[in-house]
Amino acid sequence: MPGAFTITTATNTVTLGPDRQGEAAFVVTNVSGRPIQGRALLTWQPPATDRAAWASVQGDTERVFPIAGTQQYAVKFTLPSTAPEGQHILRLDMQDVTSPDDVVQGQSVTLQVAAPPPKKPFPWWVVIVAAVVLLGGIGAFVLLRPKPATVPVVAGQSLVKAQELIAAAGLRVAEPLKAENSDTLAQGLVIRSEPAEGTTQARGTAVTLVASSGPATFPMPNVVGSAASAAVIALQQAGITKFALDRRYSETVPAEQVIDTTPGAGQLVTKAGEVRVAVSLGPCRRGTLACRRVISPVLISPNLRFRNDMLRVPDQP
């Protein structure tokens, strides 16, 4: 029974260079008289199982062949350095995928493998020269490098004084300056330096000064009409940790309810600003003189929680 394929190659010998790589092309034609799906097989002569990685088909090994259709297979050779020199023979065979036992043997290609080029002796003189240059460079660096400078303490100083201290230390002030809010330092005073004070830097290194832009401001929360306990919590959560509760008698506002605030709702305040909250004691039923008496405010501190007895007038039964 004639084979389903014809397999030819343009060259029967491939000479591999020093890199031991090369390529061969095979032309495969379907002569079965029917469409067929073929698979390319690589076979070493004599058969060897340790050479599978020496050659590979580029692209799909399995392809569809129409009647009288032709496909070209490129085989790439990559032999390891351990491959013996001399001749190695490879054949491209074709298999009918639907009839695996139907295998057509193709033409063989002989690989000519030359001996690898001799290794050049390692140029030890290059290592010696490099070592001398390196040691000389290290010595010059140690002898000629400038002495380091220490970042001075500038926190709390004015910008002018801080700049003088930086320059006197052999450093320079970076531009632009940075600004941050501070609840403890007045506007224009230095909060810190970057790099930090006490760190060692190369002379001439730029040091950034972070100056205070004063305390951060935010709108006064609207607590008018709220219960005194809720107002205290709202103000503390907003960041106002120190403020005064002014206790007042009121004929119109129920007891323990906020009458008004100073500053008013929406006005800008700071965490350390003076805030007063007027809280109703309800109507006064103790006589004209007692009702007109000034009642001392209750001072709220950062960790103080509101208690209802804070709204009791000291001499009230």
Automatic annotation (TrEMBL):
Q: Which UniProt keywords apply?
A: Membrane, Transmembrane, Transmembrane helix
The cross-references to InterPro entries, in alphabetical order and at most eight, read: PASTA_dom (IPR005543)
The residues that cross the membrane are 122-144
Which Pfam families has this protein been placed in?
PASTA
User: Gene3D superfamilies from the xrefs?
Assistant: 3.30.10.20
Q: Which PROSITE patterns match?
A: PASTA
Annotated PASTA domain residues: 145-213, 214-281
What's the domain of life for this entry? Bacteria
Q: What is this protein called?
A: PASTA domain-containing protein
